[in-house]
Structure formats: structure tokens, C-alpha cells
Amino acid sequence: MARLALSSGTCLKSCSAVAVAFFLWFVAPQAQAATEDDRFQQAVNYVFTGSIDPKDAPEIVDRKSCVVMVPDRKFKRYARYYLGRFKMDIARISKKYSGPQILYELEVEGDDAVLEFVSLDKTTVAYGFKSAHISLPGNFDQTEKALQIIFSEFCKPDKPKAPF
Fold this sequence. Notes:
Layout: H1 2-49, E1 59-62, E2 67-72, E3 77-82, E4 92-98, E5 101-109, E6 115-118, E7 125-129, E8 131-136, H2 140-154
Antiparallel strand pairs: 1-2, 2-3, 3-6, 4-5, 5-8, 6-7
Helix pairs in contact: 1-2
């Protein structure tokens, strides 16, 4: 009888060890990936809204291609930005003065459409542009950090392909 109890206890310890190993192998990397995804979402939120947790957050449509959908309340449509197509080496941030207030704007362009205006159904494209002016509503220093996170960690531009 004691031997059976010992075997059950050993089995219980072995099963617990296997469960812990499974957790560390499978669940922990997913938690880290979720944290990285949250970091990307927060950076995108800050660039487009000036807040890391806005009420109407931009939707990341495709993380791999860095496609973001931002609601445009003024015209009842969505703006779809292709962040992976931005030529950040020639992008610039300009200042606009409105009395004592300074407003910042990111000016970007690309070889393909970097901005498309989409209807409320999120599928019908009205028109697109190879350049865009994006208003940056947040604190300038924080916006620069968010842009750095987006374009150095998540949306690295593809290297130009050689013609041959």
C-alpha cells in the first residue's frame, strides 16, 4: 500500500514538473509576444491620438505589413496607413504655430500608396496617396520615442531590391 502511495506521489510530482515545463515553453513566449504587441499598439496609439490608451484607438489591421486603420470622425470614414511603406529616411516633422501653441506634423511619402481613405465598411477604398501629412497631437518628445519604437522595432523598411 505504501508503495502505491509513493508511486502516486512521484507521478504527481512528475506531472507537475511537466506542466511547469510546458507553461514555460509554450505560454511564456506568448506572454512576451503579447507585451511586445501591446508596446506596438501603445506607440501607434500615441502617434495618432496623443494618448497610449485612447477611447477610439487606431486598429492595427496587419502587424507584419504595419497597416493601421484610424477613424476620421470629421468625414465619417477611415484612414488606412501603410507604415511599412513610409520612407522614413526622407520623412520630416514640421512645425506649425497657432498663437503660443506649436503643432507638429509628420510628412511622409513612399513608392506605393502610404495613405488610403476607406469607407465606413472598411473595405471600399475611395482614393489613396503616395504621401501623407499626419498630425501629431501628443507631446513632441514622447511622439519621437513612439516613432522610434514603431520604425526601429516593428516596421523596419524593406531593403531596396537590386535590379539584377
